[in-house]
Each structure stands twice: as C-alpha cells, then as structure tokens.
Amino acid sequence: MDLLRSEPMQLAHLIIPIESAYRAVSYLGDLGLFQFKDLNAEKSPFQRTYAGQIKRCGEMARKLRFFKEQMAKAGLSPSSRSARVSNVDLNDLEVKLGEFEGELLEINSNNEKLQHTYSELLEYKLVLQKAGEFFYSAQNGAAAQQREYDVQHIGEGSIDSPLLIEQEMTTDPSKQVRLGYVSGLVPRAKSIAFERILFRATRGNVFLKQAVVDDPVIDPVSGEKVEKNVFIIFFSGERAKNKILKICEAFGANRYPFADDLGKQFQMITEVSGKISELKTTIDAGLLHRSNLLQTIGYEYEQWNFLVKKEKSIYHSLNMLSIDVTKKCLVAEGWCPVFASNQIQNVLQQATFDCNSQVGAIFQVLQTKELPPTYFRTNKFTSAFQEIVDAYGIAKYREANPGVFTIVTFPFLFAVMFGDWGHGICLLLATLYFIIREKKFSSQKLGDIVEMTFGGRYVIMMMALFSIYTGLIYNEFFSVPFELFGKSAYGCRDPSCRDATTVGLIKVRNTYPFGVDPKWHGSRSELPFLNSLKMKMSILLGIAQMNLGITMSYFNAKFFDDNLNIWYQFVPQIIFLNSLFGYLALLIVVKWCTGSQADLYHIMIYMFLSPTDDLGENQLFFGQKFLQLVLLLLAFVAVPWMLFPKPFLLKKQHQERHRGQSYALLHSIDDPLEEEPHHDSHGHEDFEFSEVIVHQLIHTIEFVLAAVSNTASYLRLWALSLAHSELSSVFYDKVLVLAWGFNNVIILIIGIIVFVFATVGVLLVMETLSAFLHALRLHWVEFQGKFYEGNGYKFYPFSFALVSEEEE
C-alpha cells in the first residue's frame, strides 16, 4: 500500500454484449474498482436507453420511503439485520411492494374515516352533556321563578286581573313565538371573536351560552388536539338562522343536533356512547393489523431498500454506456487502477459465462493525455488522515501525498500545544471506547458530532498518544510535576529551602534524564525558562517542517521530470529559507549546546542592518561573521533567481515547441498515462509572456513574505502550549487546592465537581478543538503550501458498498 503516490490509473475501453451487460455491470459494482465515464452526456435522462427501468426503480424507492414514513409515525424502526443477503427477484418485489402499498393505503383511509367519525361522536357527546346541563338548569330556574311569582301574587287581586287572565287563556297557542337554537363546538381561541360577530350580525337578537371543555378534543377535520367550547345559540326567525349558520361555517364551528326533551337527550347520549365504544374497538383492531403489516415490512425493509438502490445504480451506470452501430453490444469507457486489470477481466469473463453468452466482453487500455483521477488505497486507520488532506484539495494525479507525513506530524504538532500526560490519558480512554466498540457504532446511525468524533477516532488516538509523550517531556500531569525518571538535579542552598524562590536553586546531582526537571515548576524562573524553551522549540519544528515541504517539491519535480522547477524553484527557495531561518535554527542549537549568553535577537537584526560590524560577545563560533555575510548574499541572490529565469525559459520552450525543435523519442513505459515533461499551464497555444511574468512575480513575493510569516506562525505552538499549561495550573491551584484548604467535606466535593467540569469542558473539549484547528492550519498553509497543488479530482468507482452508504 503506497500512500506517497496515488495508484497508477488507466483509461479502459469495454465492449460488452447486450445480453451480459447487466450482469457485467453488477459484478463490476461488487468489485468496486471501475469508474464509468458518461458517453451519453449530450442526452437528457429521458432519452437514455434504460430510462424506463430507472423510473421503475424510482417508483419502488418512493414506495419504500412511504413505508419508512409510516413506520416512523408508528414508532417502529426497520430491522438492522444484514441487507446484503438478497435472493428476491425485482419483478416479484415490485408486485409485493404494490400490494403492500395498496393494503396500507386502504388501512390508512379506513382508519382516517373511522377516526373522523369517532371524533365527531366524541364532540357530539360533549354537546349533549354540556347543553343538557344548560337546559336542565334553565328549566329548574324557570320553574322556581314561576313558583315564586305565584306565591307572591296569591290574593293580590285588581280590577285588571280577571281581564289579563282571561286574555292569556284565550290566546291561540299556534300564534305563540317559539325560539330556535343551534348547538356545537367552536375553538376556544376563536370564541370571543365568534361571540362578537354573532352579536353584530344579528344586532343583539340572539342569546349565546358557552361552556368550557376541560380537556382538548381531537378536531374531526384537522385531526389535531384543539381546546374548544360548547355553545348553544337561541334565535328567532329564518334570517337570523341563516346568518348564524354562515358564521359557524366561517369560524370552523362544528354543529350538532340537539333535543330539548330530557328523555330524548338521555336516549341520544346512550346511543352515542354505544357507537363510540364500537368504533373504539374497530379502530384498535385496525391499528393492530396496521402495526403487524408494518412490522412485516420493517423486517425486510433494509434488504428491499438495498436491492432497489443496487438495481437503480446498475441501470444508471448502463445509461452511461453507448450502443454500437450493430446494436448488439454496449461500449463503456472508464478509469481503473492498473493493478485491477486482471480482476476486471476475470469479472467480465464470469459475467459472460453466467449469461451463457457466445461472445465475450473485450477489455482494452486506451492511450490518453487526459488527467486521470486520484486514488489512494487507505484503511480505517489512514483514511481519516487522508480526509484531512482531501479537505484542503484532492492531490493531482501521482503528486506527492502529504497524508503520509500527516499521520505523524499532525498529532505531534497538536501534542506540542496540548502537552499534558494526564489530559492525554483522558483523551486516550475516550477514543479507546470508540475503537473497542467500533463494530457496534459503525452499524448505528449517530448524531453529527458523535459521528464526526467516531470517524476521527484513530486521529484522536494518535493525538492522545503524542500528548502523553509531550506531557512527559513537559513533566505535567494536570499541571502537577512528578519525579518519574529519577530525582531532580537541583536542590536548595540550605536545608530550610527558604531562598528557593529568591536566590534560586543549585545543581546537586546529574541532569534529570528525560524532559523538564520537576523543580522548575513553581520556581521563580519557571515562566522565563519554559517560554524560552517552547518558543525556540516551535521555531525549530517550524523550520524543519517547512524544509520538508520544500524538499517534497523537489521530489514532485523530479518525478514529473520538471527540471525548471528543480533549478529555478526548489534550489532558490531552499537557499533563501535556510540562509535566514535555517541559520536562526543553527544559532539556537549552538546556543543550547554551548550555554552561551548571546542575544539571538541582536544577531539576527544586525545581520541585516550592520552585516560588517564586529559581533563581540554575541559571537557563538569561529567564522560566524563571514558565514553571515555569505548567507545574506545567498538570500539576496535567491530572490532574482526565483523571479527572472523561469519565465524566459518557458517562453523559449514555447517557441521551440512551435518551430518543431522539441521532438523527443517515444519510449515504451509501463504507465501510458505518465504526464509529458514540462506539461505546464503556460505551454498552451495562447502563451502570454506578461501573464507569466506577473504570475512568477506574485509567486516570488508570496514565498519571500511567507518565509517570514510562516516562521512566525509556528509560534502558535508556544502560545497555545503556554495557555494550556497556565489554564491547567489555574484550575488546579485556584479550584482543587483552594477547596482542599478549607478542611470542609462539602466545599471539597464542590471543588472537585467544578475542577472536573472545568477540565473536561475547557481543557478536554475547547482546548482540544483549538489545538486541532491550529495544527490543521499549520499543515494546510505552512506545510502543504510549499509543494502541494491539490487540483486533482477523486476516483469515485461504481461500487455497491458506496451505494449502500448514501442517504436518499
């Protein structure tokens, strides 16, 4: 498995008999190493050969989506059994899906009708109860008032009394006015407006009585739970009745008949209650049948869904093939890795044999100058690191892949900023949980954040391991130092150790064997010492990684046989970078080795301002002044070296190419797709010399400025490492130690809880994300920017494994 260069690719030409085309494409999907080119790009989807089959598969996919929606509404989930075991014929499946859909639609339709009737009966029962209460209380009140009136007027006669009584007795009952009434339910939110409109429309000639229904009821029309009021409206006359009916309709008020006779009311309530009980039993039976049907569908759903996706993808690929003039064969073109040639030919032969075809499929390799897709063979460990690189840009075909180095450099630079072996152990335990249970998690649908964390579990594991390593170097365990590798090399001047923070410590034994001496922590010199150490270490790491990036540009140019980029890009760039910042790295190492007190800031500044002045006490080694003059001269020479020669040489090459003076022998090489030497974007017909000059000028200025800014950018390693260390120290000293000092159990428990939440929330989540993003920037800009073009396109083979992972 070679990750440094993408797999050699070839453009293949397939001629497949029509009778074995379906099976051949299916077997290629199982193999997953052939990317079809669309040979019918000028045709619309409806003009292609297999448009009918795709439409058919789309209809089956629609039915499956319908089943999934119904299962989700019912609270069921498809069975998680393997979807790959498929012995179902597509025609049988189509018939079966149609039958299930028809049955399910019929069940749903009947259930909706029953639910509608059930909701109406429930509302009707409420109207009968509430309106009956109103009539009963009104009749009782009227009877009581009549009795009271009769008692008050017994014996109180007048001259008019006989005449009035006689008039009342002689009145025709048919001429007495009878009030009509309408009853029903209105949504509570509309009840006030309903009452106001009724009053205005009838000019107050109605009597409205409302009763609040305690619990929300299911509206028969919308099927949703709504808070409602029971109303009864008394009116006189047909005109008032028509107005009331229109207003009820406008406000969505459901009207129900009502009898003023108490006996009839009781009979109606009894009948409605019986119907409600019967409907409830019927609805429950229907829901049980529907649930059983959905369970049957859910058990086979994944298998059916995969089969439909598979069939649709096969016909979609077949639509990319063109029919030859005899209309007996299909012609395909596509990319495949060179190593897969024999596998593809074996698959095509197997398809021919299985179909009993008399004519075999033909596999040919085509010669082309088209840029092939990029394909890296990765596994579950390397894929996440490759994704980090691909997020920046897909590597150009056969370009050096930064992913190889990213496997080590990315977690290491993260760990430089996150160095604490206690926090590293916490990260390691968290990611080991995902790694140990990866089979279970890979078969489940996870949330966005959890899925992203699970996908990068091996990246986090490497980050945690490197964090433990750098934490041991920094000697920090939740900011607490330990004497893990022996005793400290330093001791106090006297046994009382009172001068440890004022006068300082003295060396009493051999140097601490690994990492930072534990005595540095908590001393007066801790911050200046660690600042100096981490700052210089960041510069060394940055210069080393930038040199690696420039060196990779040499290997790219060498691989593509591009001598221009070797002599006029790589050489001046490596000279310029190391003349200035490589020299700074040398000074840092020499100063560490010699223990000199020289001021590196002064040396670097006056190297430019006064290169001929005597160095004095800042001289670190013999011949330093002469070396500085040579390096300064080389840096100044490197800039025009990058700027001027390359455009003129490109122009010369262009002119020679068009005069026919640039012919070369055609050698037989293993890779027919090897790019031509000097295949550059400037080598086309419209060669604009001014554009090339401007482009080279921009590139040169960018590199010179980036050499300074990128070196400074690596100081983020020092800054974030210091911030992480100080935050960890604050949480330990100001929370945990402070709570311990109170000698109170409750305060100690609160302190431990605050410390744990602060450590997890800030240091293990926010700081991890921060260090991850900064390490990402250092790789994308400072490292990959030196050599990585990233203008290729990815190899997407026709594979059923990829089809099954796609979301509809």
From TrEMBL:
* Transmembrane keyword on record: yes
Which superkingdom?
A: Eukaryota
The reply on keyword Metal-binding is: no
**Any one cellular component term from GO for this entry?**
vacuolar proton-transporting V-type ATPase, V0 domain
| Main localization (coarse) | membrane
State the membrane topology: Multi-pass membrane protein
Alphabetized GO MF terms? ATPase binding; proton-transporting ATPase activity, rotational mechanism
Single GO biological process annotation from the record: vacuolar acidification
Cellular compartment(s): Membrane
Q: What are the alphabetically sorted keywords of the record?
A: Hydrogen ion transport, Ion transport, Membrane, Transmembrane, Transmembrane helix, Transport
Transmembrane regions listed in the UniProt entry: 412-436, 457-474, 537-555, 567-590, 626-644, 745-766
Q: Which Pfam families match?
A: V_ATPase_I
Q: What's this protein's family per the entry?
A: Belongs to the V-ATPase 116 kDa subunit family.
Protein task: Essential component of the vacuolar proton pump (V-ATPase), a multimeric enzyme that catalyzes the translocation of protons across the membranes. Required for assembly and activity of the V-ATPase.
Q: What is this protein called?
A: V-type proton ATPase subunit a
User: Lineage from the top down?
Assistant: Eukaryota, Viridiplantae, Streptophyta, Embryophyta, Tracheophyta
